[in-house]
Amino acid sequence: MISYFSSGFSIIRNLPFVLKGDSLEKKLRLTLLIAGTSSIVAGIYMVLFNVVRGHHDIAWLYAASTLLGGYITSAAFCSGLKRNLYIIVHALLFSIILLLLLDNYHSIVKRSEYNYLMALTIGSALVLRQQSNYLSKIFPLICLAFYLLFIATGLTWQSGAFRLSIPEEPGFYIVNCSVSIIALLLTVFTSRGDYSETDLIKRELSNAIEKNQLELYYQPQVDTNKKLIGFEALLRWKHPVKGFISPEVFIPVAEKSGLIIEIGKWVMERTLQQMSDWDRMYHLSNLMFSINISPLQLMHRDFTQDTLLTLSHHKISPERLKFEITETTFIYDQKRISSVIEHFSQLGIKWAIDDFGVGYSSLKSISDFAIDDIKIDKSLIMHIFDNESAAIVVHKTIELSREMGLNVLAEGIESEEYFDYLRDKGCNLFQGYHFARPLPAGEAALWIRKATT
């Protein structure tokens, strides 16, 4: 007997692993299985209960709810989960309302049936939190509204008309019932919320573009003669309360939330607009502008088309653009990435690997892509004088890159000593505070004036 129960418990415990999907989907399917089984058990009992007492009309309604329980149970194992969810939650709500209106044979315990609406309200708020706004927020409120309606009025359908059964001392009764369920529902919504600094940044970042809080700064890039050869466009977020928020804080949040797609389009548009404005003012022709491209942008289906349209709109020559990607880009779909890189390379746009030396790729893997520049990460550059390993990595990277026909740009140059050392090792492009910090457009224009006079 013990082994029998142990075997049964083991089957139940392992049941979630039989269901389809990831962890969240398994939880949702398991909840449907529980709801369906509960509906079947309660339905069968109520069918028998009403048949024995001769209430055959209501017994048919409970039989229908039993069949609904069977459908819910089967949906836990079937595909098309999202479509089934919409059907299931509304069918459950409709069946409960129908039973509350029509089952009037048990008036003494009638109000205990309202617990089904309360269960549907709380259950949908908890279980559907990862679904659409309608299912996760609006539907629980609809259930709550019906719960309060029945609690307050005792509404039923009898003899072809709606009947009200207002309880004695209705204010006392309604307040006790409604305040407790509303408090419970608010607790559920509160427990579902994410009140971390990351979530706050995500919500405020989504409005940053509309509120003109994002700005582009431009950091000069120079050659071995310290002559200006271009700028890197760098995104800055000036929060009205927190001031400037570091890109190291908000860029990962933007990538994780998907906001980087919209932000990336804004950066592209603003950079090309600024290039167009400066072209009219200073008649630029040789300055190169670097734009950072997120892996998610690069993989997005509209990236190529949107970029080409923006280039055409601002009449910018593709040869004056350089797209910078990080080494982590290569962990994504390499075939698609290679196709996008090759397409833009044929148009004349250059590609650079940003922060090289601290990530995923190697010079060998880069040789498989149409890459033009290597940007050695500043975390390596800053240790070339106090860490022999860092110095060797930097030296060999420069040496091998030049042999492969790649330009090498050193980031984080903070003194003349670093500049002289790296120039002597063969590095031909430089960027860092020793030359200039990232500059707002007005100050970057001063560099352009000096370079063109």
UniProtKB/TrEMBL annotation:
Gene3D superfamilies: EAL domain
SUPFAM superfamilies documented for this protein: EAL domain-like
SMART domains in alphabetical order: EAL
PROSITE patterns per UniProt: EAL
Name under which the protein is recorded: EAL domain-containing protein
Keywords assigned: Membrane, Transmembrane, Transmembrane helix
Entry annotated with the keyword Metal-binding: no
InterPro entries found in the cross-reference section: Cyclic-di-GMP_PDE-like, EAL_dom, EAL_sf
Parts of the chain that traverse the membrane: 30-52, 58-78, 85-102, 138-158, 170-189
Organism, as annotated: Candidatus Pantoea communis
Pfam family membership, one: EAL
Domain EAL: residue ranges: 198-452
Signal peptide stretch: none
